[in-house]
Specification:
The protein is an all-alpha fold. 82% of the residues lie in helices and 0% in strands. It is elongated, with a radius of gyration of 15 Å. It is found in: Membrane. It holds the Pfam family PQ-loop.
Amino acid sequence: MELSPDAAIEAIGFAAAITTTLCWLPQAVRLIRTRETRGISLSSYGFFSAGIALWLIYGLLIGNAPMIAANTVTLALTLVIVAMKLRYG
């Protein structure tokens, strides 16, 4: 079965979303397990989380499913990291 050009573009978007989103999972899991936040920059993660929130809003406004999915999960993971830094940092 051959994908239409639009379906292929959407598939690439989802592949990119999955790849870039999953990169935050090891960091979040490590912080949850060790509670070691000394090497984490609160300001960097705070600004990054704000940027991700804006990308999520943008994705919602234009109705882009890969962007919405990726930024929802990424925001959740980075907010876990921010919360751990605030609690244990």
